[in-house]
Specification:
CATH class of the largest domain: Alpha Beta
Shape: globular
Oligomer: single chain
CATH architecture of the largest domain: Alpha-Beta Complex
Strand order of the largest sheet: 3-2-1-4-7-6-8
Number of helices: 16
Structural class: alpha/beta
Number of strands: 9
Radius of gyration: 23 Å
Helix content: 40-55%
Largest sheet: 7 strands, mixed
């Protein structure tokens, strides 16, 4: 059964569309999607902007936004997940359905920020010429990893070896045309084949698409779109602060205000990073990492949105500490001086109490 069966197709088929897939009642992903759309609108020039479509089971969440929603029923989401329980199959099905809605489709994950005019990307999408988020690695670089061995056996049935392998792309962005139905039919077929009898990795969807694209011209989009999948916590905190200040009701002012939100996580200045490196020169291993993350959070640039997310550096430190045995944790955190003797103090004295309270609460909550 096709991924497009039983879904209504909008009457108007525009030339260009930004396509999002979002389902479930998770406010963090809703905020991701809305903020991504705001950045796309903020970078649109000359009054030109693509249609924005959202495939969702909660169309009411986007009432008043300049988007068109396509409602996904529970039955559709179940069917798109397939019989093997691989939920990322839904993404491949969403893009396949998107092909019926526009001549050119730029699918973007919700955890993306536009840094340039999205219309520039549509100019690069042509029949037989594709856009993907970024090149990540070659099959020859990963085929011997333990979690890739099972998939490797499946790929050998298709004649794939380390010597004649293919490039693996991150599918956080995917630019295609309405002529690419066969590409996604193949990709979904590979997903079903490779997830039969279970699966060891969760990126099979993008591996299947990369394999279907093998030998075809593919360009990266990372100069125009920032996919912050590795730094989600920082951006979630900034987006939560943004929408708590300005609300989620759409208006043009919201587009302008989104420009104030940084497009990178809060790294200290180069000079501050050098000072921190010097302060930690005598530390090694995980203690050095803990010290770096604590001091990075304290030395974050003075900016309202960075203030809202600097605690995520301390969260990274706490996760490292939680890997330690209880004795080592106590040695670091149970100090009469108010700050661990093993670590240099932050430049902001007021942060000492804040950081220690944060770490102690995290360790106690995990005990």
């Amino acid at each position: 059964m096709s991924c497009t069966d039983f879904l209504a197709i909008p009457v108007e088929k525009p030339r260009h569309q930004l396509l999002y897939l979002i389902y479930g009642d998770h406010e963090v992903y809703r905020r991701e999607a809305k903020f991504s759309m705001l950045t796309a609108l903020a970078h649109a020039t000359n009054g030109q902007q693509p249609s924005i479509r959202i495939l969702t089971d909660r169309p009411q969440d986007y009432a008043g936004w300049p988007v068109e929603t396509v409602t996904l029923t529970r039955e559709t989401l179940t069917r798109w997940q397939g019989e093997n329980g691989y939920h990322h199959r839904r993404k491949a099905c969403a893009i396949a359905h998107g092909l019926t809605l526009a001549q050119k489709t730029l699918f973007v994950d919700t955890d993306t920020l536009f840094t340039r005019d999205p219309m520039q990307l549509f100019e690069r999408i042509e029949p037989g010429h594709y856009l993907m988020d970024r090149f990540e690695y070659d099959w020859k670089d990963v085929h011997e990893r333990p979690d890739y061995l099972k998939l490797g056996g499946r790929l050998r049935a298709h004649g794939v070896t380390a010597q004649n392998g293919f490039k693996l792309f991150n599918s956080g962005v995917c630019g295609v045309t309405d002529r690419d139905t066969a590409l996604f039919d193949a990709s979904i077929r590979f997903i079903d084949e490779w997830t039969r009898d279970g699966f060891d990795i969760h990126t099979i969807e993008q591996i299947a698409l990369s394999f279907a694209l093998h030998g075809k011209p593919v360009d990266e989009t990372r100069k125009s779109i920032y996919h912050y999948f590795a730094d989600k916590r920082f951006f979630h905190a900034m987006q939560a602060h943004f929408f708590s200040l300005h609300g989620e009701t759409f208006n043009q002012q919201l587009v302008e205000l989104c420009r104030d939100v940084p497009r990178a996580k809060p790294f200290p200045s180069a000079w501050q990073r050098l000072k921190i490196k010097w302060k930690l020169r005598h530390q090694r291993g995980s203690l050095r990492k803990v010290g770096r993350d604590l001091l990075y959070g304290s030395a974050a640039p003075d900016h309202p949105y960075y203030t809202a997310c600097r605690h995520e550096w301390w969260e990274s430190a706490s996760r490292e500490i939680l890997r330690w045995d209880r004795g080592r944790q106590k040695k670091l955190l149970e100090t009469k001086q108010g700050w661990p003797a093993q670590l240099p103090r932050p430049e902001k004295p007021e942060d000492e109490r804040i950081i220690m309270k944060y770490l102690i609460n995290r360790v106690e909550a995990a005990s």
